[in-house]
Amino acid sequence: MKDTTTLYQHGTLALLVPGLLAGTLTMAELLRHGDTGIGTGEGLDGELIILDGHPYQVNAQGEVHEVAGDFTLPFANSHYADYQPLMTVLGASQADLNQQIRALAQLDNAFFSVKITGLFTAIRTRAVAKSEPPYQTLAQAAQQQQIFSRGEVEGTLIGYYAPQLYDGIAVAGFHKHFLAADHSFGGHLLDFESVTGEVAVQPFSTLAQHLPIADAAYRQHDFSGDDIVGDVRRAEH
């Protein structure tokens, strides 16, 4: 029986800050912990969204490809989907939507996932081109992101909410990725003007935090001089 109450996370957003971007988990292994999720590839190689067990990468050219099991990641989340309907929205802005989800879900101090399917307008996403060793810091890589936009597109948003208490391990608040229904567009969600569709949530009672302890660079890095929360917040919002 699949465990739908656990959120699996490989790596932390904090380790991306100083440029610890080596791929330390394969997609095949990530999929052993869930059929839904988000992440990024080695060297911040694009943005990933997993739907129904299929992992899709949006690369820096805005192209969408399904990736193989040997594709490696420095950071990712996955879980087994068991979403429960929360509400139907009609022309909701992103700010209003976030507020409504938090008010109705009442899960501010828990990890949960949100899934939104519908019609999005004036949507903007981004993806970062893969960097090679020696890797850039997260702040440097974020400056080279490619931004994509659509006036109107049907698709699915998958996101995770992390409590303020866990800022740095994840990004406090929402972290969302998007994939168009026809797989022609997607990426890390920056913003949208409105969405009309269905909103569902899935709370987690357990966070399974997996760390890349086989990676010497991770084991030896001193994070005390890194602006973890500041750099994560600037890069992810």
Report what the structure shows.
Keywords: Acetoin biosynthesis, Decarboxylase, Lyase. One of its GO terms (molecular function) is acetolactate decarboxylase activity. Pfam families: AAL_decarboxy. It is an enzyme of class 4 (lyase). It contains six helices and 15 strands. The protein has about 240 residues and is an alpha+beta fold. It has a single domain, classed as Hypothetical protein, similar to alpha- acetolactate decarboxylase, domain 2 (60s Ribosomal Protein L30, Chain: A), CATH 3.30.1330. The strands form three sheets. Strands 6-5-4-3-8-1-15 form a seven-stranded mixed sheet, with no helix packed on it. Strands 9, 10, 11, 12, 13 and 14 form a six-stranded antiparallel sheet that branches. Strands 2-7 form a two-stranded antiparallel ribbon. The radius of gyration is 17 Å and the shape is globular. The termini are far apart. About 40% of the residues are buried.
Question: How is this fold's topology laid out?
Answer:
Layout: E1 6-10, H1 13-16, E2 25-26, H2 27-30, E3 36-40, E4 47-51, E5 54-58, E6 64-66, E7 72-73, E8 75-79, E9 84-92, H3 94-105, E10 111-127, H4 138-142, E11 146-162, E12 173-180, E13 186-191, E14 194-204, E15 206-210, H5 216-220, H6 228-236
Parallel strand pairs: 1-15
Antiparallel strand pairs: 1-8, 2-7, 3-4, 3-8, 4-5, 5-6, 9-14, 10-11, 10-13, 10-14, 11-12, 12-13
Enzyme class: lyase
Catalytic activity: (2S)-2-acetolactate + H(+) = (R)-acetoin + CO2
Pfam families: AAL_decarboxy
